[in-house]
Amino acid sequence: MSEIAPHDTHDDDPNVVDANLVDAVDADVVDENAVDADGVELNLCVVNAEIAPAEFDSETSLSDEIDAPVVTPADQETSRRSWWSWLIQRLATIITWLVGMVTLVFVLASLASVPVLQFISLGYLLESTGRIARSGKFRDGFVGYRTAARVGTVICGIWLTLLPIRIAAKFSHATYAIDPDGTQTIIWRVAVTVLTIVLSLHAASAVYCGGKLRDFFWPTLVPLAILSLPWRKEPLENWFPPMKFFAAIRRGEIYDVACRRLWEFLQQLRVKKFLWLGLRGYALTMVWIGIPGLLMASILTGEGLSPPMLFFSGLLMAIVVMYLPLLQAHFAAEDRWQAMFEWRHVRRLFTRAPLAMLISITVTFVLAVPLYLAKIEATSDELTWIPNVLMILSVIPCHWVAGWAMSRARRRETPRHAISCWFARLWIPPLSMAYVFFIGLAAYISWDGGWSFLQQHAFLIPAAFLGSS
After folding, report:
1. DSSP strand E in 130-258: where?
2. CA 74 → CA 66, 67, 80, 84, 426, distances in Å?
C-alpha cells in the first residue's frame, strides 16, 4: 500500500487518512474508537475493505447501522391481537352497513306510502345522486346509513326485549281460557306485570345509554363485567347501563338529556333538507314530463285529442325521458333549480362520458319497467309496503348510476372519441322509445289508466302504490 504522509503536514486536505488507520484496515480490523495523531476520536465501520480517500467521512458513525428487529413472543401476541381487532372492526362495519341499508330501505318505503312524506323519499334519492356526482364515489351515496343503523338496532333491541312479555302473555291467555281463577293464571298475570315493568325500564336504560345492541344485552355480559371489576378504576355510573340510567334519574337530568339527544337525532335526519329538495325535484320534473304525460293521458282516456296524436305525444315523451335522468343528476349535483333546464350543458357533458351515460339510462329504463306490473290491480293497504320496498330497491341503483355517470362527465374537460359518442347516440333513442311503449302498454292494464303517465316512479314519487283505500 502506498505511503501516506503524516497528518500534520496535510491539515487542509480532507482526503488524507492517518497511517494508523491504514494499518488497521490492512489487518482487517478497525477499532470503533480509532484515534488519529492529534487525539481526535474517529468512528469507523470498515470490514475487509480499503478506505478510498475520496469516500472518507469523519462523521460516519456505527449508529447508522441498524440491526434487524428481534421479534419477541409478546410482540407476536400483540400482532395476533391486532389482527383479531382488525377483523372484528371490519365485521362490525359490515354489519352496521347492512343494518343501516335495510333500515333505510324500509324507512324510505314507509315514507313512500304516506302523502307529502313521499317528497322526503324523493329528496333523499336526489341527495344521494348529487353526492356521488360531486365526489365520484359510490360510498358517498349511502347518506345517513349510520343513523339508520342506530335506529335499526334500537328497533331490533326493543323487539327482542319485549319478546318475553309476549310469550308470557300468550301463556297467561292460555291458562285463563282453561282455568280463569286458577293458581297458574294468577302466577302468569303477575309474571306479565313484573316483566312489563322490568323490561320497560331495561329498554329505556338501553336507549338512554346509546341504543347499541350491547346495551340491550348487558345482562348476558354481567359475568364478564364482574371479572373486570378489579381492573376498572371508573365508577359503575360511567359504564354500567342500569347505574347510568338511575344516576341520571337521581340527578334529575333524565328529561333534559333525553330532549337534547332527541333534538340532535332529529337534526341528523335532515328532514327539512330532504323535503325541500324532493319538492323542488318533483316540481321541476313535472315541468318536463307534464305536457307529454297529459297529452297521452287525454288520448287514452278518450277525453282529449285524436288517436293520431298518440304518436306525436309518445315521441315527445321519448325525447323527454332521454334527457330526464341526466337533468335530474345535474340538478342534484348543482342544487340549483336552473340546472334542471340546462339541457345544452347536459349535452356537452354527455360527450365527455357517453358510455357511462348510456349505462345510466339503460339501468333506469330496465329497472323501472317491471314495477309497472304492480299497477294491474290496486294494492291493498296491508300489502302496500311490498311494492314500495321493491320500488326503492329498483330506484336506488338508478340514482347511484346516474350520479356516477355525471361525476365521470364532470371530471373530464374534453369530449371522448366520436365512435363512442355516436354509439351511445344510436342506442339511447330506441331504448327511450321502448320505455315509452311499455309505459303506454301498462296504461291500458293499470288501475289508474292514463294517469299513470304522471306517476313514473323512475323520476317521481311512487304515487301508484298508495293503496286501494
Report:
1. none
2. 22, 19, 10, 15, 66
How wide is the angle at C-alpha 233 spanned by C-alphas 229 and 238, nearest 5°?
A: 85
Let me know whether 380 and 433 are in one domain: yes
Residue with cell 359490515: 94
Please provide the average confidence, as pLDDT, over all residues in the chain: 77
Highest mean pLDDT of the ranges 211-215, 246-250, 334-338 = 334-338
Q: Is residue 389 a contact partner of residue 108, using CB atoms and an 8 Å limit?
A: no
Residues written for the chain: 469
- How crowded is residue 96: how many other Cβ atoms within 10 Å of its Cβ? 17
Q: What's the rounded Cα separation, in Å, for the pair 379 and 373?
A: 11
For 110-119, the pLDDT digits (tens) are 888 888 888 9
Q: pTM of this prediction? A: 0.72
Domain that holds residue 26: 7-64
Q: Are 276 and 391 in a shared domain? A: yes
Q: Give the C-alpha separation, 110 to 103, whole Å.
A: 10
pLDDT in tens, 50-109: 444 444 444 444 444 444 455 455 555 555 557 777 787 888 788 888 888 999 999 998
For 248-315, the DSSP string reads HHHHT-HHHHHHHHHHHHHHHHTHHHHHHHHHHHHHHHHHHHHHHHHHHHHHHTTSSS-TTHHHHHHH
Q: Are the beta carbons of 206 and 241 closer than 8 angstroms?
A: yes
The string of pLDDT tens digits covering residues 266-317 is 888 888 999 999 999 999 999 999 888 888 877 776 655 566 777 888 899 9
| List of residues 6+ apart from 335 with CB closer than 8 A | 130, 277
Residue 425 domain-assigned (yes or no) = yes
List Cα–Cα distances, 412 to 224, 352, 364, in angstroms. 57, 6, 23
Residue at which a domain ends, from 269, 301, 332? 269
Q: How far is CA 111 from CA 76, 105, 151, 304, in A?
A: 52, 10, 15, 34
Q: 223 with 358, same domain?
A: no
Kindly state whether residues 287 and 310 are assigned to the same domain. yes
The number of distinct structural domains making up the chain is 3
Residue 458 burial class via C-beta count within 10 angstroms: exposed 0-12, middle 13-18, buried 19 and up: buried
C-alpha 346/C-alpha 353 separation (Å) is 11
Gap between the Cα atoms of 239 and 228, Å rounded: 12
Cα separation, 19 vs 6, in Å, equals 7
Rounded to whole angstroms, how far apart are CA atoms 417 and 352?
Answer: 9
- Residues sharing a CB contact under 8 Å with residue 375, sequence separation 6 or more, in sequence order: 442, 445, 446, 447, 448, 452, 464
- Are residue 401 and residue 349 in the same domain, yes or no? yes
Answer yes or no: is 104 within a domain.
no
